[in-house]
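STRUCTURE:
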């Protein structure tokens, strides 16, 4: 019987629960302890019948850091990468957005005709979700104008992105491959596939595969859906030779049918008890 497929987005040396730029990352010490305490090492996706699988999403330096820790502890790990950010040397929209939120000087903002208080907690989360809903469907290069608008509303003291949230380089990726980190496709860009036509999605998947072939000399077998919510179906699904991985909290963990697998996010459990 196949084990579980676990998901992380990376780690940081020192984690703080109220910092937006660290909300999807886990404390490095917690990850080390988790890796050291596992009685059975994480397997590769190909060996998933023998145990659990560890996957890490996104092309950030924090994701690369977590991959290196996993390999140093003797675990297999698969990193799902978006080439667009690496190739264009761009920061993910959510990394810039998190900085704007952390560095905000405004106490309230009007966005899409709604007034939001920007106090930590539910109020700030409501604003985040409203902006995120606008950003998720956009192609990577189209997010700048909206983020400029948000920055104008929140008046951040700085937009300097911390190291863990920056985009890794091609050399970083090649270093991970040299450490036997397995590379998967996260699509060309981190865009909500539910907002894409089938033709756009096929082009996105093929563009990523060609980039991997040109830069790394191989094409990844497995694909992790950006945001992990929408299944990949039809002609687009046929572009993926291996597994299609989701990250949907409302679905059961494990095999869902038609090569779709749902992953269990370890972020919240590893963050618990820290800060």
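SEQUENCE:
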């Amino acid at each position: 019987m196949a084990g579980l497929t676990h998901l992380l987005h990376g780690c940081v040396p020192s984690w703080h629960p109220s910092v937006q730029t660290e909300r999807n990352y886990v404390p490095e010490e917690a990850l080390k302890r988790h890796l050291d305490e596992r009685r059975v090492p994480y397997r590769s996706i190909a060996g998933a019948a023998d145990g659990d699988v560890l996957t890490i999403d996104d092309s950030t330096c924090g994701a690369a850091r977590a991959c290196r820790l996993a390999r140093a502890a003797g675990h297999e790990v698969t990193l799902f990468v978006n080439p667009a950010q690496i190739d264009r040397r761009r920061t993910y929209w959510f990394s810039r957005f998190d900085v704007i939120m952390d560095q905000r000087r405004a106490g309230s903002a009007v966005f899409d005709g709604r007034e939001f208080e920007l106090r930590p907690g539910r109020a700030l989360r409501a604003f985040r979700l409203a902006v995120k809903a606008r950003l998720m469907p956009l192609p990577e290069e189209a997010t700048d104008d909206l983020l400029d608008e948000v920055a104008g509303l929140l008046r951040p003291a700085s937009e300097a992105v911390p190291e863990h949230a920056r985009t890794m380089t091609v050399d970083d990726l090649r270093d991970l491959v040299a450490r036997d980190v397995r590379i998967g496709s996260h699509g060309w860009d981190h865009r909500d596939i539910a907002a894409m036509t089938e033709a756009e999605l096929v082009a996105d998947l093929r563009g990523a595969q060609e980039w991997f072939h040109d830069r790394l000399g191989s094409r990844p077998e497995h694909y992790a859906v950006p945001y992990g919510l929408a299944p990949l179906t039809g002609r687009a699904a046929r572009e993926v030779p291996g597994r299609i991985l989701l990250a949907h909290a409302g679905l059961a963990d494990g095999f869902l049918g038609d090569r779709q697998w749902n992953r269990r996010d370890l972020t919240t459990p590893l963050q618990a008890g820290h800060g």
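REMARK: Residues 17 and 275 are 6 Å apart (CA to CA).
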